[in-house]
Amino acid sequence: MKIVVTGATGFVGRPLVRALLARGHEVVAWTRDPARARIHLPALCAVESWDAHGATDPAKLGGVDAVIHLAGESVAGSRWTDARKNEILSSRVDSSRSLVDAIQTLPQAGRPRALIAASAIGYYGDRGDELLNESSGPGDGFLADVCRAWEDEVGRAATLGVRTVSIRVGVVLGRDGGALQAMLPPFRLGGGGRVGSGRQWMSWIHLDDLVALFVHALENEGLAGIVNGTAPDPVTNARFTSELGRALSRPTIVPVPAIALRLLLGEMSQILLASQRVAPERALASGFSFRWPELAPALDDLCGDPAHELIFEQWVPRTVDEVFPFFSDARNLEKITPDFLKFNVLKVTPETVGEGTTIDYKLVLRGLPLRWRSVIEEWVPGKKFVDRQVKGPYALWHHTHEFEPARGGTILRDRVRFAVPVGVLGDVVAGGFVMSDVQKIFAYRHAKIAEMFGTPSVGGNGHDGSAHGRAA
Q: What integer pLDDT is reported at residue 282 of this predicted model?
């Protein structure tokens, strides 16, 4: 199927796009920032510019089989001023209205067959110990009002003959983003504890399961309406706190009083204090199987590895035989590294790169002159090679370079795993800076490689109407 995904560069969108491509679907990301999307999305995902607040051109939906609509401003991150609340509401409601209006102008036969949209369990408001399923009514409060208006706009597509699913997403647990990104630093330092009374229910879901649920909703043509996107093991905040402390081997004795949250966050504190005990009845009834149905194993999976991982992909219109020699010459790394690093290759031993080769560099990282030595620990000519830091600024640096023939050219894929020194404290202090630096380095590399190897630049993501143009 040809699938449009909005919000594709977000925490859920990125792995969802990968999952859809892996299942053989053609994916087009609609985004307000095509340049950013080209860096963060898989190479075979096409990118088109889209203004979520403006009118959607119906012609952009030509040949589209389904739309997965994830776009929306984060509800966290800053206090809910009137302006902020308006942005949260309009980013969801206006974008949904724009999509459905565009669908409505199309002839029946030319409309997408499905619209799968995100919603949130904020729909239910603060409901104490009440067990909530998809037929439970809406609650009170700002988030409940937003979700109701959001779902109403999406639901209009059902009157147009489009199968419509709204997935009410719970607290999403994943690596390097979502709820855990904010929770882990204090917990890893032993400063975590229950929030408020700890009796409020948290309905959570592992990111892997949420991605799989969106795919399930897309491919299961018998599923329509509201689906709760939560695991079948809702827990109280006190239990969640205990399990997270256990997974991290840290004490959880520092509570956060509700009054302090209300003073600090204002109305936004309801995200943490509202109680929603949600059951995913329709997902289970439709045959969906959770990989992570229980909290303890889910947290063990997410907290067991302290390393961060980033994946970057890029398509170039050259064969593997044309591009691999460039990357097999270690000194060419200087040509695709930004000037601010003052990067210089000092020695390659032996000069002909292969398994066991060591490479010595010098660079300047955030003003600090450094020496770095890597070893090539795996070398498969024309397919991949792996370099590992043996001396340098990181506690771990493991970089896999992959070369995959695709659409008459080559996908260049970089998988980077890194950990900062000084353990938990180092990660809390410097992890965010390192993540930002790595992303800047690979954004520069993406641009230089595109320049050197002639990646098409017409339209979004090199989209020139050809098969090649649908790659990054």
A: 98
